[in-house]
Amino acid sequence: MKRTLSSAALLLLFLGGESLLGQAQRALLSVDGLSVPTDGALYAFHIDTWGVTPLAVCKVFPLWDIKAEKFMDPAGLLSGRSDPYHRTLRKLDQLYLVDVYEYQPMPKGDPKGDYHPASFSGWYEVFDGSGNIIKKRREIRVSSFHLTPAARCPDAPPPEP
């Protein structure tokens, strides 16, 4: 009996430890309020996640490489990079459908001991108004991450004629 319970606990851990943390909040993740130069655009973004399960990439922009990764622990990564010739994106609106467990807007605890990172943190790079890539990484502020409750990605717009 003891071995069966231990095996079941291990199986739950490997199949999705987040389910042990409680109820998930399913939502669309948007990132706005980014400091993009006039006539500039986003070039790349990198969002570290903690206690977040990416379920879907809701939009794929022309000439963009968009990724969602989930690791064995509660960590994950949402990222994207533009082709140098596509300079129109200024914000990330309802880009990912995610399950968030125990939302934490700010990190808490001692990094040398019991520590819980923020649910979302990251950086972005931009094109300037002339189309040049500004290689300086800019931090995404906590206030830029927005979760909108949703069961699925938004409907796609109708195809262009």
As a whole number of angstroms, the C-alpha radius of gyration is 18 Å
Q: Strands across the major sheet, in which order?
A: 4-5-2-9-10
What separation lies between the terminal Cα atoms?
64 Å
**Structure summary, number of beta strands:** 11
How many structural domains can be distinguished in the coordinates?
Answer: 1
CATH architecture: Sandwich
Assign the CATH topology. Immunoglobulin-like
**CATH class, please?**
Mainly Beta
Instruction: Give the H and E element order.
Output: HEEEEEEEEEEE
The total count of helices amounts to 1
- Principal-axis shape equals globular
Give the integer mean of the pLDDT values: 84
Low-confidence stretches: 1-20
Q: Residue share in helices?
A: under 10%
Judged by helices, strands and strand pairing, the structural class is: mainly beta
Largest sheet descriptor = 5 strands, antiparallel
What percent strand?
over 45%
